Amino acid sequence: ATLAPKGTSFHQILLSMGEKWRQAPGGGVLLTVYPDGVMGGEADVVRRMRVGQIQAGMLSAVGLSEIDPSILAIQNMPMVFRSLEEVEFVAEKLRPQFEKRFADKGFVPLFWGDAGWVRFFSKSPVERPADLQKLKQFCWAGDTRQADIMKAGGYRPVLLETSDILPGLQTGLIEAVAMPPFFALAAQVDTQARHMLALNWAPIFGATVMAKKTWDAIPAATQQSMLQAARESGEQMKTKNRAEADQSVTAMQKRGLVTHAVTPQLETEWRKATEEYYPKIRGSLVPADLFDEVLKLLREHRAARQK
Amino acid sequence: MNLRGVENAALAVALALMVALPMAEAALRAAVGTGISGASALLQHLTLVVGMLGGAVAAREDRLLSLSTAQLFLKGTLKSAARIFGYGVGAGISAVLCWGAVVFVGTERGAGNILAYGVPVWVVQGVLPLGFGAVAVRLVWHGGEGWRGRALTLAVAVALVAVGVRPPLEASRLVTPALVLVVAATALGAPVFVTLGGAAAILFWGEGLPVASIPLDHYRQVVNPSIPTVPLFTLAGYLLAEGGASRRLIRVFQELVGWFRGGPAIVTALVCAFFTSFTGGSGVTILALGGLLMPILLASRYSERNALGLLTGAGSLGLLFPPCLPLILYAIIAKVPMKDMFLGGIAPGILLVLLTAWWGIRQSPPAAAGEGAVFRWQEARQALWEAKWELLLPVVAFAGLFGGFATLVEAAALTALYAFVVEAIIHRDLKLPDLGRVMTECGLLIGGVLLILGVALGFTNYLIDAQIPARAVDWATASIHSPWVFLLLLNALLLIVGCLMDVFSAIVVVAPLVIPIGTAFGVDPVHLGIIFLANLELGYLTPPVGMNLFLASYRFGKPMPEVARAAVPMMLVLLVGVLLITYLPALTTTLPRWVGK
Ligand code: NA
Ligand code: NA
């Protein structure tokens, strides 16, 4: 199951992966894909996997953190990553750790990937942190710790349900929301919040996971070729996703979205402002050991590249 | 205090908390920026508690919504046998759902997620198996009046579960007979939720899929963040209906429009629309207002048959006015913005009220009691003044929402609180014992409705698991080529659905099938929703499953066939309205677009 809309490249790639699975040695595996979030939100997909109604799901860190919070070390770290290449590097390094934690909880990750960046959408132009601090900003009601951290950063979180985002923007209950362009387009957020800041705030990161019980019942040879097909699909998705994020922005611009570019100076200003409340994120939103490890990996990676 | 008292008190307290929590949240947010930690999750799980507790109380009182006609027609041994069978199957299905809920809660316990303040989610989810279990036990209890009847009911339930656990044949070959069994049980008296819950359980079972998926969907449906509006607006409606509001509002409308030809009919249409918009498609309107309006119509020398028809039909007017429950529910299922649904329903709703009033005027006796009466300014002003607080209610309900300082759930809580203040403190029509009774009644009704909504989503999920909506879209787009033909077929389909299903199940089960097809044909989603609900409004008046027919029959003590015949003209009037709504999209879409600008 996936929240990805039908007909998108997400959906098509999963279908072609299913075709490869069917032809895998040892009898193959039949994959039925449920797109459009018809199986419910990400937490619902995880629940269904636990009771055994469905066996696999493509989830973002929101759903994956229902299984194990370690994954938030990538998605909940704003202004830490400077490029998707850095995200990929860190994710690859942490993968064995993630996979072990997930296996302990009864889930097997098949492939990992990012879906571009979370961006700020707002009713009035936002260029620097001070602009955003003036606005009432959406914060998901299920995540009270996030709200505390936003407040620590000088922002004004309004705790609402995702279903309240669009009406909230309409009535002025909220004035800004952070979300990936892909979803902003689908939810028509841009019709109410006409400004987007092209800041690489935080990556959207996820994985396709399978229930361990199902996985263990599959013969080893079949597993191997399934993993092979899954990894290939993961690679395809990564390139497609990034292209689709850009296409979403273009589509919204045609409807009247104004995008604000970020100069290196502005980026530094955002980074400084955000780093001030890292101590609040460390140990609450992100496990402390993982937080430190991500920063350490990035330091090493950047140093190695400069040589 | 006995169990009964404890249950009633817990239900009333949970409902009161549902009002208090969003109010505190909104107030704190305005005062200090952020509200109560975890308020939203707590409120959603309070709804779950109210729902399951209300369902258990409804079962205790033998008042789970059942749309069977058999219990009215049958006599003697046949009647007892039908009851034992219907209730036995109902109890068996409830037991299966209880077991599924145990499995579901077990997996949730293993996951170890925290709701708020250190309380694990699974502890609250525990009300699912408890609720289904209580319903099962109570269905057995009400299966017969004596121990013999109860023992037989229990035997039916046990046999059903035994076949489920150890099927004598291959499970897949038993699916069809089992489904027939459940439908028969429904016809003979099993509650409505048993039909869909049972069908879902059987279908999942037949394919070797976990039955725990149904309680999972039940949970998902009931803790939907918009669902708390359902109990809150219903509570507001109940407080008004049981307080003196009905009397005061009828007087206002009578003084304003009651004095000219057909006036009493117009009063009926207006008052019914007002109350239905708050109490939803629950039939409270007929029960609460029927007794007040019937004498007024008869005194104006309307024939008994016309009066009965008018009251039965008008009982579903207002279904399209905000904040009516089916509107909310459709918006949730279709993922349409609630505000657009609310605005979209206004003009079509007015159209239906006008058509009803028009029919009422035409039916008014030649020398009606209104004749010679004149508009009395003094009395009108006095009536308006007396009812000023109730007349302000819609303003209170929507000012917060459209003014940008409250969410819909908070606006609903404010409405309930306002209704409480008006009826219990300002007018003092409701004393403390009344309040307890009203809240239990309201909780019972909500419990019954949420039980249906929850298992209906479980059934829908089976359809999705079997990829039926996707296939329906492929079929429809391949064989229908014009959106107008699609709309005509949709009208026909929904008329049949309205004949066979109650409005809540219809929304949860049928809307997910229809919406993707509508989207494929480019029908505006709000327009599609209003067509859907207007069609179902007709379903309230059509046998064999017509909730208003039932309620009117019960309230006025008339046999069902007589009520059904009396309602035919009103049905035709509403049919004209439905067709106008369907083929004049602008009627629906103009207001949301204009406000959306
Ligand atoms: Na009907
Ligand atoms: Na009906």
Explain the layout of strands and helices:
The complex is a heterodimer of chains A (307) and B (597).
Chain A: H1 9-22, H2 42-51, E1 56-60, H3 61-67, H4 72-75, H5 84-104, E2 107-122, H6 129-133, E3 136-140, H7 144-152, E4 156-160, H8 165-171, E5 176-179, H9 181-186, E6 195-211, H10 212-216, H11 220-254, E7 258-260, H12 264-275, H13 278-281, H14 288-306
Parallel strand pairs in A: 3-4, 6-7
Antiparallel strand pairs in A: 1-6, 2-5, 2-6
Helix pairs in contact in A: 1-11, 2-3, 5-14
Chain B: H1 3-32, H2 39-60, H3 70-73, H4 76-111, E1 114-116, E2 119-120, H5 121-125, H6 127-143, H7 147-165, H8 171-187, H9 192-206, H10 213-222, H11 229-242, H12 245-257, H13 263-279, H14 284-299, H15 304-314, H16 325-334, H17 338-363, H18 377-386, H19 388-391, H20 393-402, H21 408-426, H22 432-465, H23 468-479, H24 483-500, H25 503-520, H26 525-539, H27 547-556, H28 560-566, H29 568-583, H30 585-596
Antiparallel strand pairs in B: 1-2
Helix pairs in contact in B: 1-2, 1-21, 1-22, 2-6, 2-22, 4-6, 4-7, 4-8, 4-9, 4-10, 6-7, 8-9, 9-22, 10-22, 11-13, 11-21, 11-22, 12-13, 12-18, 13-14, 13-15, 13-17, 14-15, 14-27, 15-17, 15-27, 15-28, 15-29, 16-17, 16-25, 16-26, 17-26, 17-29, 17-30, 20-21, 22-25, 23-25, 24-25, 24-26, 25-26, ...
The structure holds sodium ion (2 copies).
